[in-house]
């Protein structure tokens, strides 16, 4: 085991304790259902959760959530309280796990997330049939609803939104690029997802992996493999490359002046504006509580609750996929 791999192991152990501490004593609200650890692959990390209100109707919109953790650690369970809050606002939340670096490359992580989303789509279709039966929705009503939704390009039958924090936002940015650019998909060797994302919210995105900072100096060879600078994909690991940015749907970028990766979010947001994408920035003022991805780490903060409500408002105002 190399020195860096030993560091990754310690980070994961510390993170697991943090997950336990965050969820200790927390009780799931009675009006929320959680289906846990639905498998989409053979590895124990290739799972997703589905979180939704007990009174959910068949046309409930979907949020896909991708957790952070620097690509080397993290777990969907850490985002559960954040996702429950989003579900309470009237969404079916699908929280996707993925394998971790250095056991796999980032390209395999991207494929994991895409495969998880595609598997969740099939599972969601079954859940929707159950909800239709519970609510007594007739076949004629289903057909009329499907006709209306097809005009809005809802390939799940409802809007599908994307939330992601830190390294999860990095993966989210790139699975969108793989979908929108055949060239990026070819260089990354990643199969695109078929799901069209209606709008996205990126929280404290760890978008840059090759800058001369703590991430860029030590991580690239573990993320991309040795000799990555000579690889055909190299130009595309710059998140402000037009080929990456052009695939963004309507996007809400979130950071704070106390976010250690503040400049990452601001720079990608400015690039999205430059290339004519529809985007909004929420930049919270300097506050020792409003640190990196604070809404996920501290979901009970009043600012976290405010942010989650703002994300829902943004999604509600963007119900048609932006091209």
Explain what the structure shows.
The protein has 323 residues and is α/β, with parallel strands linked by helices. The chain has twelve helices and eight strands. Helix 3 (106-135) packs across helix 5 and helix 5 (167-180) packs across helix 6 (182-188). The longest helix has 30 residues, at 106-135. The radius of gyration is 19 Å and the shape is globular. The relative contact order is 0.12. Residues 148-153 have low confidence and may be disordered.
Defining key terms:
8-stranded mixed sheet, globular, alpha/beta, 323 residues
**What is the helix fraction of residues, given as a range?**
40-55%
Biggest sheet strand order reads 1-2-4-3-5-6-7-8
> Treating each run of at least 4 consecutive H or I residues as one helix, how many helices?
12
- Ends distance: 46 Å
Task: Please provide a brief summary of the model.
It is built from twelve helices and eight strands.
SSE arrangement:
Blueprint (H helix, E strand, L loop, with lengths): L2 H21 L8 E8 L7 E7 L8 E5 L13 H9 L3 E5 L9 H30 L3 H12 L9 E6 L1 H14 L1 H7 L10 E5 L10 H5 L1 H5 L17 H4 L4 E7 L5 H13 L4 E6 L9 H4 L4 H15 L7
Parallel strand pairs: 3-4, 3-5, 5-6, 6-7, 7-8
Antiparallel strand pairs: 1-2, 2-4
